[in-house]
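user: can you give me the structure for this one chain? C-alpha cells are fine.
assistant: on it. calling the predictor now.
[tool input]
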Amino acid sequence: MAFIPGQFSELTEEDLARLVDGAISETINLEFKSTAYPLGPDGSREFLKDVSALANTNGGTLILGISEEAGVATKITPITESDHDSLKRRLESLLRSGIQPPILGVRMHHVQIDDGYVLSIYVPQSNYPPHRVSAQGKNSFHLRHSTGVYEASMEELRALFSQTVTIRAKLESFRKKRLFMIENGDSAITVAKGDGNLIVHLAPLYSPYGSVNLISAHERNELLRPMHSSGWTPRFNVDGFANIRSGVECAGYTQLFRDGIIEATKIDIIRSRNDERYIWARHIEEILSSSIPLYIKCLENIATPGPWIALISLQGISGSRVCCSIADLDWETPPEIRQKDLLLPPCLIVPSENRSEYIGSLKPALDALWNAGGFAEWSPEQNR
C-alpha cells in the first residue's frame, strides 16, 4: 500500500501498527527503513537513490522507523538519535542539492511514538522525469521495482525523457480543445458573446488518485468564485462542479473537472477608446492575482496538492492592442494583435505559505502579455 496525499498528513500510530500487525509487504511504491539515513556520503546517496527511484517510477512512500524481514513489516523501531525537525531539514537539504532537476511535491510527516518518532516521506510520481542523483562526483539515474532500487538502462532513460514531452503536449492539447469548445458553444456551460475572453486553466502537475471530491468543492464554493465576480450560482454538471456568474447571460464561470483541472472564464476583456480596442494588461494582472490563490486553496482543500501548471489564454482578441495603462497612450500606440487567440506560456506554481508569491509565478505568461504591448517585460510596479 502507499499513502495518498489526502491521507498522508493524518497518518497515526494506529496506522503504523496495522502495517506491522497485517504483515504488510514492501511494494514498488512502499519501502520500510528500520532507522534514519545515517550521516555521511553513503547514507546521503542511499536516500537520494531511494527518493529519485520513487519519483522516476510510480511515486510512493518511504517509512523510516519500521523494521522488515524479507520485505515484510515486523516491528516499529522509533527513531531516537535526532529530533524530527533536524532530520527533516537535513533530508530536505539533500534533496535540494543532490537531485537534478529538483523533485517537486515531496512531503514529510512524523508520528510521535514513546520517546521517538517514525518519519514518513511521500514522493509523488514525477511528470518531468528522469531525475538524476548527483553526489560525490557521480551521476546516476534510478528506478524501482517490487524488490528494491536499480540503475536505469539507456532504453529506460529514453522512455522516461519522452514522458516529459507527453505531459506538456497533453496539457497544450487540452487547452486548445477547450478553447475550441468554448468558442463554438460546445462546453457544458455556454458563455455570452463578448469582446475578448480571458480563460485560465489550472492543472495539478501530479494527477489525483481517482475523481476529486466534488462535494467538498461545493461546500467551499466561494474558493471557486468566477473571475472578477461578486455573485454566482453553484451547480454540479456533467464535467464535475461549476460556479456560474450571476446575470441574465453567463458572463463567466469556474469549472472544476473530475481530474482536478480548473477552468475559469471571463468575457469582455477588451475596452474601446477613441475607436480603438484595448486590453488593459494591469486589469488582467489584478484579475489573476485575486483569483488564482483562491483556486489553489480549493485544490489543496480537496487533496490535490501542488505544484500546478497555469495556462492563460486570451481568446477572440484579433485587432486589439495591449496597453499597460492609459498614460501609455499619450506617447505611443501599442502594436495591433494579429492573432485571433493569444496562448501565453505555461507557468509552474509551487506551493507557498505566502500566497502573494503566486502572481510572481505567472511571470512567463505576463512577460508575453507585456511583450504583446511592446514592453520588454512585466514589472509588478510599472505604471501603477
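assistant: here you go. The chain has two domains: 5-152, 167-372. The chain is about 30% helix and 30% strand.
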